[in-house]
Design brief:
With 249 residues, the protein is α+β, with helices and mostly antiparallel strands. It has one domain: Roll (Carbonic Anhydrase II). Helices cover 18% and strands 31% of the residues. The protein is built from five helices and 16 strands. The strands form two sheets. Strands 2, 3, 4, 5, 6, 7, 10, 11, 12, 13, 14, 15 and 16 form a 13-stranded mixed sheet that branches. Strands 1-8-9 form a three-stranded mixed sheet, with no helix packed on it. The radius of gyration is 20 Å and the shape is globular. Bound molecules: zinc ion.
C-alpha cells in the first residue's frame, strides 16, 4: 500500500516537473495584436527589459558624431548553411561562416536573418528589408552588422536562399552548395555604430550594433517572396536615451 502511494507521489512529482519545464518555454510573442511589440515587456518576467531597458534597439539614426570607429575587418568564409523558418523570421545558420574584427574585438558569425521593413531608420526613413548578421565573441557578447536593402536589381547572393524559402514555422533545410556571407556585403563598409539590444524578446542589452551605410539591391520579386511569409516583422524604433551614434567616413 505504502509502496503504491509512493509510486503515485513520484508520478505526481514527475508530472509537476514536466509542467515546470513547460513553463520555461518562452512566452509566445508576435509583432501585432495581444502578444505584439507594445506588450513584450509584460508577457513574462524574462522579457521585462523590453519595456524597462534604456538602451534598446532598433533606433532612428539622426544626429551622428563623426568619431572614428575602426573599419570592420570582414573575414567571412564559404560555409555549409542551414535555412530555418523560426516562426518570427527566416534565419540562416552558418556553422563555419568566418569572423569579423570590430572596434569592440573579434567575433565569429553565428547566423543572419531578415526583417521587413528595416527595423532601423535613417533620418526617419525605413528601407524595405534589412539583414542582421549576428556574431558572438568568446565571452558570449553579441555584435550585429546590419545590411540594408533597397529595391532594385535581383540580389545574386540571396538567390540560393530566396529561391526556396522554408514556407512554414519549424521548416528548415540545407542550403544548396556553400554560402559566403561576404557576397551579401555592399562595396563600401562605412557604418553607424551604437550600443543597443536584441530587437526580439528578451531584448537583452549590451549588443554592439554596426549598420552599414550603403544599401544593397533586392528585386521586387525577391522582396515579395519574403513578405509572403512575413509581411511585417519589425520592432518599432526605440528611444535613444542619450546614446550617441558614431559614424565612420
Ligand atoms: Zn534582427
Amino acid at each position: 500500500m505504502k509502496t503504491k502511494y509512493m509510486l503515485v507521489a513520484a508520478a505526481a512529482l514527475a508530472a509537476m516537473a514536466s509542467v515546470q519545464a513547460a513553463d520555461h518555454t518562452p512566452a509566445h510573442w508576435d509583432y501585432r495584436g495581444k502578444a505584439g511589440t507594445a506588450h513584450w515587456g509584460d508577457l513574462e518576467p524574462d522579457f521585462a527589459t523590453c519595456k524597462l531597458g534604456k538602451a534598446q534597439s532598433p533606433i532612428d539614426i539622426r544626429a551622428v558624431r563623426h568619431g572614428a570607429p575602426a573599419p570592420i575587418d570582414f573575414h567571412y568564409a564559404a560555409s555549409n548553411a542551414e535555412i530555418v523558418n523560426n516562426g518570427h523570421t527566416v534565419q540562416v545558420n552558418l556553422p563555419d561562416g568566418g569572423t569579423v574584427h570590430l572596434a569592440s574585438g573579434d567575433y565569429h558569425v553565428v547566423q543572419f536573418h531578415f526583417h521587413t521593413p528595416s527595423e532601423e531608420a535613417v533620418n526617419g526613413k525605413h528601407y524595405p528589408l534589412v539583414a542582421h548578421l549576428v556574431h558572438r565573441n568568446d565571452a558570449g557578447e553579441l555584435a550585429v552588422v546590419a545590411v540594408l536593402f533597397k529595391q532594385g536589381k535581383e540580389n545574386p547572393a540571396l538567390k540560393p536562399l530566396f529561391a526556396a524559402l522554408p514556407p512554414h514555422a519549424g521548416d528548415k533545410h540545407a542550403v544548396e552548395g556553400e554560402f559566403d556571407l561576404g557576397a551579401l556585403l555592399p562595396a563600401h563598409h562605412d557604418y553607424y555604430a551604437y550600443t543597443g539590444s536584441l530587437t526580439t524578446p528578451p531584448c537583452s542589452e549590451g549588443v554592439h550594433w554596426q549598420i552599414l551605410k550603403q544599401p544593397v539591391d533586392i528585386s521586387k520579386r525577391q522582396l515579395a517572396a519574403f513578405r509572403k511569409l512575413y509581411p511585417m516583422n519589425a520592432r518599432p524604433v526605440q528611444q535613444l536615451n542619450g546614446r550617441v551614434v558614431e559614424i565612420t567616413g
